[in-house]
Amino acid sequence: MLEPSNNNELPVIPEKRYFTIGEVSELCGVKPHVLRYWEQEFTELNPVKRRGNRRYYQRHEVLMIRKIRALLYEQGYTIGGARAHLMSDNANKDSNLTRQLVQQMIAELEDILELLK
Fold it and tell me: Disulfide engineering: 47 pairs with which of 33, 41, 55, 86, CB 3.0-4.6 Å?
């Protein structure tokens, strides 16, 4: 198992659609029971469950697990602090997207106004 300070030494994520919990464990340097616990604590982690309740993670979830791992193990966040940090990141992304959409709409309306003149 990797030490917390070795997040940069994690293996490259292969080009696959789904990953088993064992694969994610190796890719992220986190034991499977920790991944199952994080699923309860972080709503962003919601792997697909198939026959026999087997978990299949997608690439974005593997990246999220690596981000959570870095927050907890390297930056010293608590579970609650990491959850709040991720929520604020999502809020910032949403506000930036909204700002871009509004600017695009303004530009389109200005173009329409020029056409009407």
Answer: 55
